[in-house]
Specification:
Layout: H1 16-29, E1 35-36, H2 51-61, H3 76-88, E2 99-102, H4 104-114, E3 121-126, H5 130-140, E4 146-150, E5 156-157, H6 159-167, E6 172-178, H7 190-202, E7 206-210, E8 235-240, E9 253-258, H8 264-280, H9 285-295, H10 300-322, E10 328-330, E11 338-343, H11 359-368, H12 376-388, E12 390-391, E13 393-394, E14 404-408, H13 414-433
Parallel strand pairs: 1-12, 3-4, 3-6, 6-7, 7-8
Antiparallel strand pairs: 2-9, 4-5, 8-9, 10-11, 11-14, 13-14
Helix pairs in contact: 2-9, 3-9, 4-5, 6-7, 10-13, 11-12, 12-13
């Protein structure tokens, strides 16, 4: 082209969670049965949506209003419901003007980073959910700025290390917290959240909190929403219905803005996000209409309890099966529905393989892993997929140098889940022994 048309941050936009699906689909055509443990979609994994929830949506779908535009920030009645939910819990008070709906949190994330000044950085966890790290890096046209999560401390950050990285990088304007965490399944205790808020206050930063898994906490762990501890620090909380109801296909998420008037620059920044949403007109109407009715349904809390109990049980099954594997580092999942399996340094190399009986599949994997610079955990993931049919995501794709992979706890059939975990264990053992 006469003029370079490629965005400065285009190379930062990667999403291995879905990239590996293309490989899995090819393997399916070659006759390999596949366990899709790569993406956090409870519905695709077979979780049944209860009849009462479907009835609410079906009844609303008969209303003509659900087929029209809604206000740019979202339906007033739904925003009023969310305001009452937040303020009724004694959290940082908000108004309906402090809520903006988006077409899923992916939409919210890209706009939240995309309308920051390019030189202003948000420091993100490492590892972190790819959409956050990629979107933040793309807005700046530079690699992500990170603070580490410690696998030897339940995947929690060290606040002293976070403070040091903020102090010596004046470009940092904000801190990202994902609680409960994706990909690690960690849950932040209240004292840690307060320490992060104190760091933001000390250095005049704002906070972004991805809290989409807020109501999926188990194993006796307790946390608080950011609004309960934020004090007077400007902040954005990201929430949605895709994981909790679950209704990922609704593409319905929102942000709640705290202390918007505390800083004029923060206020202008939030207005720019709203202006960007105005250009799109609005978000989808039907799921916004449905949200208050579903959450207030008398069976909703029990339904959530059942799901939490199942994730807790499956997390324990996976942990018990994998915890004593030599060379493997694993923490019990305490929230959301993911688990990280990390490998100790030096466990993975480019000479390891798994036996693949089908020659065409073996040739395909050999080609996929032929790059001498391929990350060792990505190489492992391809061999695991081809040899066992288990589709997971390499840990290095979550913006971390640590080697390992993420799997989901979403399989609803316990016998199938146990079989998958047993197969996974044998696959890890055989791969590590193969060199």
């Amino acid at each position: 082209m006469r003029t370079n048309i490629v965005h400065i941050g285009a190379e930062e936009l990667t999403y291995e969670i879905r990239n590996i699906v293309r490989v899995a689909e090819k393997l399916k055509t070659l006759g390999v049965p596949v366990y899709m443990e790569n993406i956090g979609d409870p519905v695709t994994k077979g979780e049944e949506i209860p009849a009462w929830m479907k009835e609410i949506v079906a009844q609303l779908a008969m209303e003509d209003a659900c087929y029209g535009y809604c206000p740019t920030q979202g339906l007033l009645e739904t925003r009023e419901f969310l305001v009452a939910l937040n303020n009724g819990n004694g959290n940082c008070p908000i108004t309906t003007d402090d809520i903006i709906f988006f077409n899923g949190l992916g939409d919210a994330i890209t706009k939240t980073y995309g309308f920051l000044r390019r030189t202003a950085r948000v420091i993100t966890p490492s590892p972190t959910y790819t959409t956050h790290s990629s979107s933040e890096a793309a807005h700046a046209g530079l690699p992500p700025v990170c603070y580490p999560l410690d696998p030897y401390n339940g995947w929690l950050p060290d606040p002293d290390e976070l403070r040091r990285r903020v102090k010596y990088n004046p470009a940092v304007a904000g801190i990202l917290v994902i609680n409960p965490d994706n990909p690690t399944g960690a849950v932040y205790p209240v004292h840690l959240l307060k320490e992060i808020v104190a760091i933001a206050e000390e250095f005049d930063l704002f906070i972004i909190a991805d809290e989409i898994y807020q109501n999926l906490v188990f194993n006796g762990h307790e946390t608080e929403p950011l609004a309960a501890v934020i004090g007077e620090v400007p902040a954005i909380s990201m929430k949605g219905i895709s994981k909790e109801l679950p209704w990922p296909g609704s593409r319905c998420g929102w942000i709640e803005v705290y202390n918007v008037n505390r800083d004029p620059q923060f206020k202008s920044y939030i207005q720019s996000i709203l202006n960007a949403k105005m250009i799109e007109v609005c978000s989808t109407t039907l799921p916004q209409k449905s949200l208050p009715r579903i959450v207030q349904h008398p069976e909703y809390l029990e339904y959530l309890d059942i799901r939490r109990s199942r994730y807790e049980r499956f997390a324990q099954i996976a942990y018990d099966s994998l915890k004593d594997l030599p060379g493997v580092l694993i923490n019990r999942t305490n929230g959301a529905f993911y688990m990280i399996v990390a490998f100790e340094d030096g466990c993975l190399n480019h000479g390891q393989t798994l036996p693949i009986s089908d020659r065409s599949v073996a040739d395909m994997v050999a080609d996929l892993t032929s790059d001498p610079h391929i990350q060792p955990d990505k190489r492992f993931v391809y061999y695991l997929l081809a040899a066992t049919g288990i589709c997971v995501v390499p840990l290095t794709s979550f913006n971390t140098p640590l080697q390992g992979f993420r799997l989901t706890l979403l399989e609803p059939d316990e016998d199938r889940f146990r079989k998958m975990i047993a197969t996974l264990r044998h696959g890890i053992e055989d791969y590590l022994r193969s060199d």
